Amino acid sequence: MRSLTIFTATGLLSVLSVCGIFAQQGNRPPAGPPPKLTKIKDNLYQVENQAANLDDLGAYGGNLTIYLTDQGVILVDSKFDRNHEDVVSKIKSLTDKPVKYLILTHNHGDHAGGAAKLEAEGAQVIISSEDRENLVKAPNQRWLPALAYSGHAELFLGGKHVELLEARGHTRGDTIVYFPAERVVCAGDLVTLPWDSIPLIVNYGDGGNWTDWGHSINRLLAMDWDVLIPGHGPAINKQQLSELYGRMDQVIDRFRQLNREKKTQEEITQTLIKEFHWGTGPAAGVIPGMMAELR
Ligand SMILES: [Zn+2]
Description:
Layout: E1 3-6, E2 36-41, E3 44-48, H1 54-60, E4 64-69, E5 72-76, H2 84-92, E6 99-103, H3 109-112, H4 115-120, E7 124-128, H5 129-137, E8 147-150, E9 152-157, E10 160-167, E11 174-179, E12 184-192, H6 210-222, E13 227-232, H7 238-260, H8 265-276, H9 287-293
Parallel strand pairs: 5-6, 6-7, 7-8, 12-13
Antiparallel strand pairs: 1-8, 2-3, 3-4, 4-5, 9-10, 10-11, 11-12
Helix pairs in contact: 6-7
Zinc ion is lined by residues 19, 106, 108, 170, 189.
């Protein structure tokens, strides 16, 4: 562990940005059936949106990972504030033990928005120092995590062991959560699925970029695991991560080529949509930043 900083938490959580795209969702109606609880391993569960599209993301937020121990729950991510009751009822369907730790993979509202309520109910919230800074800078942010780390941290609870690995790419301080005994890893929004409806994106405003993203995906590929739980969409294996990386790498290479040929933003966007089905929805907002990064 390179550093550990403890802060005093104050106030309540307000509206956060979601990948910088869904800043103000309001109380939009649920898009489909509620998220489903899926067993990944004994003692480890994923909560995943059933339709896996942007409407579902807006209504229900990102994926959750629930890790059960004899002394309580380690939870990865918290969805939006408004999803709190569903989050709690899903956990209660598995255990009577309290949530002891909530690890936030990054600062966006669809993952971190429910953290204040879980903290009020007794959970210790942990985020990287870099992404805590993103929260500090976010407008209307009145709640902040009390515990932040840099580089690497470990949690021990009820005989279980969880590693937190600071990475970069989607934001300036994404956390990869590793469950070595279960051979499972949570990637947060470094990995999002499905390709056509919840595209891979980086958030330049929060310190993300594709160069760091590539390093983080290579790091994930070098780790020892069987199942990867992404920030959105279904769990995947290493072969599927490798294919997803290859596909995005082609988009990045093509972008660089078009940018060097001095194509306009519109020309680049249309080419990427045509050739790769990438560049619409949240991805469209990333293209101006890519013109600066990928020269
Ligand atoms: Zn995000």
